[in-house]
Amino acid sequence: MEPFIKVTGVSHVYPNGVTAIQDVNLEIGEGEIVAVLGSNGSGKTTLVKHFNGLLKPTTGQVTVGNMNTKKERIAKLSSLVGYVFQNPNHQTFLPTVRQELYYGCKNLKISEEETEKRVKKAIELFELENLLDANPFDLNSSKRKEIGMASIMAISPKVVVLDEPTTGQDHKGCKRVLELVKMFHEHGHIVVLVTHDMQLIGELNCRVVIMNKSRKIADDRADVVFKNQELLKTADLQPPQVMELANQLTYLNRNESYLTIDSIVKWFKHNKKGLEEERKIGTGS
Amino acid sequence: MNSLYIARESMIHRLDPRTKILFVLFIVISSFLFKDPAMQLILLIGMFPLVLLSKLVKQYLMSMQFLMLFVVLIMTIHGIYNPIGETPVFEIFGGLTFKYESLVYASVMSFRILVIGTAAVIFVMTTHPSDLAIALMKWKVPHSIAFMFLSTFQIIPIIAREAKIVMEAQQARCLDVKANIFERVKHLVPLFAPLFIITFVKVHQLSYVLECRAFSRNGVKTSLRETKISSLDYMFISGMLVLLLTELYLSFAQQISLTTSNLLVSSLFAVWAVFFIVIVKFVYKKVSVFIGG
Ligand SMILES: Nc1ncnc2c1ncn2[C@@H]1O[C@H](COP(=O)(O)OP(=O)(O)OP(=O)(O)O)[C@@H](O)[C@H]1O
Ligand SMILES: [Mg+2]
């Protein structure tokens, strides 16, 4: 099957002459979660802005659901690819959460029934029943960010792009983002994440695309990428702390990946039992 | 630096901002002294060496393009329809006659726009905003007012950048900014509401940042950048004085008038030609983006 998003040999040069991405090839298919990693200024945002046509490739081609982004309006592409901006202040401006949710569908000019259906789904997904009449500006920053996401999800796009969703969020906010990403995935959306949050990636253990100096230098599963010390060094990335710990504890199973605390704890529990049994046998005989 | 200032190593850049303020004033006064289009043209051409000296010819021409739109409209519409016209000069498309008096009126007005525009562009492009604030303070303008002036200059590019992000963010919410004109008017709200909010937040933050750095403390303030009146400034100012006196003499004692209908017609054609080139260039750029990508 054709991948939903197909990036072929894309370079982007900004009007001021900065080449932000160079010769990037990438395919994203149904049901994938893809995280784009890389240091500041490596071109992550530039890359994902091509997915809904906010930026058009200087050379190369981007197709989304068989449409060439160069030939389509952003407004149309945005109904397929939802882009959640890092700062919700740029995106939300209406006095109530309810209006925010309806806003995107109104722009789409779809039937009232369909609008109701989509908004209702977003309300359920984000559990916003009690907040519908609240003013987004009165909510705390993580809730505001969530409203920003909900307003995009109410459009019901096939793909959702999240630019740095956990930046500036407290522990609870980060956990919520993780939960939401998993939920989007379960509901059949393709999720594209731009992030510096390695713990989030570890928890998701999703596909990872690494950008470095405007080029794509890796594209693999998180556990594979995080074991490649050389690659991490080139891209100036640090794996999740758990992973580093696991790398130091040389007696852990080398063939396993330990991306989460749980996985290490499981190993210890399992092996403690094993060790004890061994000891029992040892003392018994 | 986020402003219209363009750094170059040039004589004009080295002038004290106060000299350049006086220069702008001098040009405005000169321009209003003369009601003769030929004199306006002389002023305009006379300023071009300064543009050359400041090494900003390309940027200057770019910024003048926009003014050309007004100039063409004024010259053409006033030249034909202004009721003060009596003496016909020439005719186009049968029936539409350019009249001498109207053309004089129209060209004075439009050249004046170019003359004052040129002075303003030279000033803004060669004067660092901070230097301007310092210079104002030397003229005993209160520090806070000078700063307000300065920050207004600097916040415009910031707002422009934010406006771009908001535009993208709203398009990501399926707002079709390329829709027809009536739709677009409705779209002003989703574009401006977030922009206002963000700008207010930014200005608010700025005021906190300033207070954290003891902005409202009383007493003498020193500055990182220094501006000095040099011999160059004195030369410049005396030159302007001499010119101003000459101009006063010319305009009051002599009542000179160098304008001929030939001059008027050729400047009208010149303006059309320039405008045509600008349009062609613009269209070419649009089309080449569309085709070549
Ligand atoms: N609008 C723009 N105009 C000109 N240059 C830009 C623009 N946006 C980004 N750049 C430049 O392009 C390069 C890549 O920027 P980009 O925002 O894609 O990086 P990023 O990986 O998202 O970084 P960060 O982690 O800081 O968000 C940088 O060098 C940046 O300075
Ligand atoms: Mg970014």
From TrEMBL, chain A:
GO molecular function term, any single one: ATP hydrolysis activity
Keywords for this protein: ATP-binding, Cell membrane, Membrane, Nucleotide-binding, Translocase, Transport
One of the Pfam families matching this protein, by short name: ABC_tran
UniProt KW GTP-binding keyword: no
InterPro entries: AAA+_ATPase, ABC_transporter-like_ATP-bd, ABC_transpr_CbiO/EcfA_su, ECF_ABC_transporter_ATP-bd, P-loop_NTPase
All residue ranges annotated as the ABC transporter domain in the record: 5-238
Subcellular location field: Cell membrane
Membrane-related topology note: Peripheral membrane protein
Gene3D superfamilies per record: P-loop containing nucleotide triphosphate hydrolases
GO cellular component: ATP-binding cassette (ABC) transporter complex
Family: Belongs to the ABC transporter superfamily.
Name assigned to this protein: ATP-binding cassette domain-containing protein
Organism lineage: Bacteria, Bacillati, Bacillota, Bacilli, Bacillales
TrEMBL record, chain B:
Location of the protein in the cell: Membrane
Membrane-related topology note: Multi-pass membrane protein
Major localisation: membrane
InterPro entries xrefs: ABC/ECF_trnsptr_transmembrane, ECF_transporter_component
Keyword field: Cell membrane, Membrane, Transmembrane, Transmembrane helix
Residue intervals passing through the bilayer: 21-48, 60-81, 102-125, 145-163, 234-252, 264-284
One term under GO cellular component: plasma membrane
Record flagged with keyword Membrane: yes
This protein's name: Energy-coupling factor transporter transmembrane protein EcfT
Species for this entry: Neobacillus thermocopriae
UniProt lineage: Bacteria, Bacillati, Bacillota, Bacilli, Bacillales
